[in-house]
Structure formats: C-alpha cells, structure tokens
Design a protein that fits this description.
This protein has about 200 residues and is an alpha+beta fold. It has helices at about 35-50, 70-85, 135-145, 155-165, 170-175, 190-195; strands at about 5-10, 15-25, 55-65, 90-100, 100-110.
Length: about 200
C-alpha cells in the first residue's frame, strides 16, 4: 500500500524502489510537449520517493513509441534529464518497444535503515499536514480539457502544476524524524486520505 517497496540491501540504509506508468489518453493528452512529458515521467516517480522519505539515486526508463521521431526524443530527453540532473538521478537502463505511447520509470533511492515513511505508521489522532496547494493540477486539467478553445497554455501556474509537477524530495527527507507516515497526493486529498 505504500508509494514504494523498501528493500534491505545495505547495513545502514534501505533501498526504496518505485514505479509508475504514464499512458497517452489516460495520464496525459497527446498535445503535451515532449519536454513536459519527459519531466512529468520522472517527476511522478521522484514524488513517490519523496513520500517515502528517500533520497533519489537511479532510474530506468521504458518507452513504448508509435514511431521513432528523433526530434520528439530529443525534446523528451531535455525534460527528463534536466529534472534528473537537478536531483542527481542516473539513468541506469530501460527498454524500448513499438506500440501506443506509454512510458514507465522505475526509480530507486536511499533512506537510513528503518526510517522510510510508510503508510502503516499513521495512527488515529495524528495531525494531517499538506504541502503545496491542493487541487492545482486538477484545475489545470479542467483548463486544458475545455472544449471551447479557451484553454490556458504554458505560463499558467495551474497548467504548469499539471504538466510539470515538482517532487518534494527535500521535504520528504526532512520529515523522517517527525512524520509517522506520508503519501504523494497524486489521486487527490479525499482519495489518498483513505490510504
């Protein structure tokens, strides 16, 4: 039920492994820029690592592409690697295939032994804190989904929150001594609160 699996691999640290798949038409619209998609593909995984209190380290990337388009791949790579560089994440492997556009990242990060922020640490009576602004990405989705042609594009804060979410990795690491549990609110506060 957590955002990632905690694996005991080193004497002083646990490895947290997370994975997410983004599918065109389900998780993003076909008109998203390749750079935004590259950013988002990695960001959703880094956000899961943040929810576990882990420091990101590596990732694998699996691409299923309808066609090979070198310009699209170049722009996607710019978005992906600019975020990877900011968080010192190394791309260590992956796979490619042909088919409907979908992207899967598996990422790993480290947390001191026994300090992962697992959901089962939550207790009745705990205070609930939220970082950021709840609902920005949902409002951005409403704006880009408008049928009247008046949708807001780049430069709109809530649309940017939808297309380029920012993982809160430093906050997740800082909360390890204080939080009993944490979660990435990717499905919304009401849905994820039950988790």
């Amino acid at each position: 039920g957590d955002d990632g699996a905690v694996l005991k691999t080193r004497s002083d640290q646990d490895l947290v492994v997370v994975t997410d798949t983004l599918v065109e038409g389900v998780h993003f619209f076909s008109d998203i820029s390749p750079a935004d998609l590259g950013h988002k593909t990695l960001a959703v995984n880094l956000s899961d690592l943040a929810a576990m209190g882990a420091e990101p380290d590596w990732a694998t990337l699996n691409l299923v592409l309808p066609t090979v388009d070198s310009k699209w791949l170049e722009e996607f790579s710019i978005g992906f690697f600019s975020l990877a560089d900011r968080y010192h994440v190394t791309l260590v492997g992956g796979d490619t295939s042909r088919g409907p556009l979908n992207l899967t990242v598996t990422a790993g990060g480290w947390v001191p032994r026994g300090q992962a922020l697992c959901r089962n640490g939550a207790r009745n009576g705990d205070f609930i804190y939220v970082s950021g602004t709840v609902g920005d990405a949902a409002l951005g989705l409403q704006l880009v989904s408008r049928q009247d042609g008046l949708s807001e594009g780049r430069g709109n804060r809530v649309v940017d929150r939808l297309r380029r979410p920012e993982p809160r990795t430093l906050l997740g690491q800082a909360l390890r001594p204080w939080a009993t549990a944490a979660i990435d609110l990717s499905d919304g506060l009401a849905s994820d609160l039950a988790h």
